[in-house]
Amino acid sequence: MRLALIAIAVALVLAGCPKKRKKLPLPPEDTKLTRLETTQTPGPSRLPQDEIEPNDTANRATVVHLGEVRGTIAAPRREGRRWKRDEDWFVIDVPRGKPRILSLRVSGIPEQDLVLQIMHPEKHRPFMTANHGRAGEEEWIPNFTTSGGKVYFRVVPGRGWRKHKKASGRYRITIELLEQPADFEIEPNEPPSVATPIDVNKPRRGYLSDRRDKDWFLFRPAATGKLRRFKLQVEPIPDVPMELHLVTKVRPRK
After folding, report:
1. Which terminal Cβ of the chain has fewer Cβ within 10 Å, N or C?
2. pTM metric for this prediction
3. Tens of pLDDT along 199-208?
4. Residue 74 burial (CB < 10 Å; 0-12/13-18/19+)?
5. pLDDT tens-digit profile of 30-79?
């Protein structure tokens, strides 16, 4: 008996000249998710929070809750022969329970590109990264799935920060907790080892956040000994070219 392992990767590719950037479309009405009302979200009257410096490492991360956070990216500073960019780390303790979606959005800073990342606090590597905007534009991680616990994220200067050694400014982070529908993708779902499971005749919804985003889905057909034909179909996003790949073997990441 041979069990076939089939993974589906959906990759977003921007059309036209690589130097031209298109703004990504907002999710259609039927994919907008319900904001959860919890003890941490009493309403729009909650006052904004401010970052607490120094917060340039995970163990110094500013503790925040749902709502709005205000922070400042300082100009790069010189340490010996090297320039070091400012890092602002934050941590939110999401109540444990069923899977929910954490949404993070950071406003832009004039003349400064920003990168928004959900981080692994010990391995110092990102789970998810938003870096498709230019200087002055916002970044958004729309759907990080969590069952609760501490989630670390950071804001850092992006492209060209060495050329703008005097660039600094204030930004605003919006933190929301959203309902995780049963048919919605589970992010992060890249690389293939964390692919979202998908079953026959049970459609999955997802969201492509930028041109580098890939959504992996895992389909395990039952071993019946009979040849069968499967049809894979992805509903298009208006004006956004996509690619659908069927992969039967995946090399493990080293």
Report:
1. C
2. 0.78
3. 888 888 888 8
4. middle
5. 445 565 544 344 444 467 899 999 999 999 999 999 999 999 998 877 77
Whether residue 8 is found in the same domain as residue 85? no
How far apart CA 135 and CA 14 sit, in angstroms, is 19
Residue span of the structural domain in which 105 resides: 34-179
Q: Are residues 146 and 189 in the same domain?
A: no
DSSP string, 221-237: ----SS--------PPB
In our burial notation (b when 16+ CB lie closer than 10 A, e otherwise), range 162-195 reads eebeebbbebebbbbbbebeeebbbbbbbebeeb
How far apart are alpha carbons 43 and 26 in whole angstroms? 24
DSSP label at residue 57: S
Instruction: Return contacts of 117-123, CB within 8 angstroms, 24+ apart.
Output: 117/153, 117/154, 117/156, 118/144, 118/151, 118/152, 118/153, 119/58, 119/89, 119/152, 119/153, 119/154, 120/152, 121/58, 121/61, 121/91, 121/150, 121/152, 122/58
